[in-house]
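hey so i finally got around to running both of the ones u sent me last week. sorry it took forever, my laptop kept dying halfway thru and i had to restart like 3 times lol. anyway pasting them below in the order u listed, first the sequence line then the structure token line for each. didnt double check formatting much so if smth looks off just lmk and ill redo it

first one:
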Amino acid sequence: DYEVDAHITTDVDLVIGADGAWSRVRRALSDATPRYTGVTFVETGLDEADTRHPALAELTGNGTMMALDDNQGFVAQRNSGGHIRVYVGMRVDEEWHRHAGLDPADTTAVRAALLDRFRGWSPELLGFITDTDTGYTNRPLYALPVPHTWAPTPGLTLLGDAAHLMSPFSGMGANLAMLDGADLAQALVDHPTVDQAVTAYEKVLLPRSIEAAEGAAEGIEGAFAPDSAEQTLAHMTRHH
């Protein structure tokens, strides 16, 4: 029996924790909880970027642009439909906006606070703050401890962020979640029992997750450091 919520139970052969960063299923396998990485992204964005924001679109290019220095910076990512997603990253206290007396919904106040924090940066880069079409969303970044493992438990397993929540500096979170699901499905087809399938799946999942999470932790630490540009270049050289 597995308790789905406070009032419903059901009998199943396998419970798969695919319920994200704050997974409830994880609690049955592991005491680990996500921890604040020390870095917060303030997400914003540009719509119809090539026509409405051509200079910023050109600066972003066709992939991802990063400008990092002294514990903060910009990450701009080309999305579909002419949209550019922008992350204004900062190594700050988890409650930085409350300590500053900011309401994240107050676009004018958040813009002013970000411009003050990035005072002295290139006016071209500051356009990622001032020219927003979407307002600002505060996104503190969390990650599970590395390594995150658990003892084999009949009828239970994890995938995606429930298994290996890591910073986006791995660039692998969504891809790993899809690969986890495919590998688990294949294991269930290939093995005669559910428990054998889960054991085989976790033998692949866990070392792969640990390697990716170690890279992500290294990436975010280097990207938001006093010498972030040098550390990020070295990290990318090592991993690519």
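and the second one:
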Amino acid sequence: MDDAGRRLPRGRHALPPEQVARAQRERLLAAVAEAMKTKGYAATSVGDVLKGAGVSRQTFYELFSSKLDCFMAAFDAVTGLLEERLTEAAHGDGTPLERFERAMRAYVGTLALEPGYARLFVVEVHAAGPEAIRRRAAFQGRLGELVGALLEARDEQQRFACRAVVAAVASLVTLPLVDGDAAALDAVAADIVAHVRLLTERGVLAGGRVESAAP
């Protein structure tokens, strides 16, 4: 993630305290994601995060109240990045389906570029407890709304179809992320786009009409 691994200059420096704290926070977020990529949420300790970030325990507790607090901050960082990338990709010219395809590829591309954060977001969130799962569900809801607007869903059945697409993506990217398989992630994007194209051709996501999805 941008600047997440940035190191502070050695020795004396004139950086303002807020910049120092921001850099330390970014390093801790990167470290918690990296540690959980290899050890998982339950087995990762605050000490593992400190070692990866190169900061003191005192600094950690000045910024976060617990491992879970740090985890949730990293979760918010990756979901914020995903929403930003999807929104950027969806803007511009093209049909709704073309813009959806750009957004879908931006989504899986971001996951592929940030494997530590991606695993934290997709896999480890289930081990982090109820609050993490609720926050994940809220994010999925926002994505469902984004996809619904993008594909011009005009009634509840169409909006449900968009939510189902988002849920399918969340499930289908899990194994490729666990395996570190970028090609399989690309295949998920292609398969989802093909499925949405089929829904569009059958009228399930076209012009506000709701028709049978049967051939």
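quick thing i noticed on the 2nd:
Residues 17-43 form the longest helix (27 residues).
anyway thats it, ttyl
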